[in-house]
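Researcher: Let's walk through a ligand-bound prediction step by step. First, I give you the protein sequence. Second, the SMILES string for flavin-adenine dinucleotide. Third, you return the three-dimensional complex as structure tokens. Ready?
Model: Ready.
Researcher: Here are steps one and two:
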Amino acid sequence: MSESWNPSATRRGFLGLAAGGAALAATGSQVQAQRVRSAARIVVLGAGAGGAAIANRLSARLDGAQITVIDGRQQHWYQPGFTLIAAGLKPAGYSISSTGQWLPSGVNWVQEYAAGIDPDANRVTTTGGQHFDYDYLIVATGLSLDWDAIEGFSLDMVGQNGVSAHYAGPDYAELSWRALDRFTDQGGVGLFGRPATEMKCAGAPLKIAMLAEDIATRKGTRADTQIIYNSNSPALFGVPIVHHRVRQIFDERGIEVRSSHVLKALDAARKVATYATPEGDVDADYDFINVIPPQRAPQAVRDSGLSWADRWTDQGWIEVDRETLRHARYPNVFGIGDINGVPKGKTAASVKWHLPVVEDHLISEIQGREGTRRFNGYTSCPMITRVGRAMLIEFDYNDNLVPSFPGVIAPLEELWISWLMKEVALKPTYNAMLRGLA
Ligand SMILES: Cc1cc2nc3c(=O)[nH]c(=O)nc-3n(C[C@H](O)[C@H](O)[C@H](O)COP(=O)(O)OP(=O)(O)OC[C@H]3O[C@@H](n4cnc5c(N)ncnc54)[C@H](O)[C@@H]3O)c2cc1C
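Model: Step three, the predicted complex:
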């Protein structure tokens, strides 16, 4: 690695400001409403960002309810950290904690996955063959990464021969950094892009491309490096004003765009990627490639009858009302997080605003009244543009920018303060959310 690029030195510079992040977390609204007596059986599928947080909120609000959380994953992953790991700014451990540490005492954590969901019988069956009957079901399974959809690709390639795949988990993100480190030392052609399905954190593919460009510049290899971003459509981002801003940054920094190119196959031995385009398949040579696969609801959800019948039929997101997050056909079922079939909101920041809505409607129902809270599509993407710079982009269902700090943080400007939000403040805020406190 060249002398001018030293991630640990960069990291040290930010540490003194960590207290700012903790302060931000502490401002989150505490769950203070009165406890409600209920013997309801509530099953939560998934103990990730949404599942752990709603389990904490409901156990704080309900007295006597039987809350069962089903999730076989022992590790909790703080996924917004994956981008920082893949850029060599954090180690894999930064994103890893244990699922158990976030779940409140008193809930029954079943360490298996849901294998079958029968919303007509109000019953979930686990991979171990256990059955759980419920009065209310909360689906918070997140999404599945369909790696098999990329022909010729397998996860054991990550970190070698220029292959990166930081969506796969913290360890893969660290391996991805090894590949990116080598690439930005040596130069060559780097391919980036996103799948054609809905995806979590649609800004993440753009961030890693811009970080690669920045790191190559800092190392002095930019002149020998070609950064190519393959967009699944003519747009770089779903919100038009953000698309234009990112396009401008890409133009200024010489990041090339290939529109309507969707990664289809990889020949790792020859270092050739194949993209599906409207004109047919196109091959591209690479020295480095970042693979982000199509994303879909987990199979058990897709088989459950909870998915939309006429939208996202290849992806299986559940049919919830976009404002109440309540299932359209099964009113005792709610969705939180990435699994929801709504036009925006596959971010952890959206989960934060899903939580009070689902809590309100579920508890109001138990009390025999109607909930009033609504989700407006809030989605937030701290769009890292360089090490030390980001744009704090927040928007709603109508593509309006809805900045949390109007007049203080300009959403479309590359700012140090927005970088700090991502690098320092986001994780304590996320952790507070998991505990039901933000
Ligand atoms: C690279 C990357 C960068 C990101 N950056 C940001 C960012 O900067 N800001 C931001 O706000 N968001 C970001 N996100 C998105 C954010 O992490 C997700 O939107 C968020 O974690 C969604 O929460 P969730 O509860 O829906 O899913 P998850 O947190 O993924 O949790 C889902 C849980 O469900 C479990 N599960 C799966 N199938 C089953 C089953 N059949 N039965 C039971 N349990 C099951 C899983 O084991 C998992 O524990 C990023 C994501 C990635 C990958």
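Researcher: And what stands out?
Model: The first helix runs from residue 7 to 15. The longest strand covers residues 379-386.
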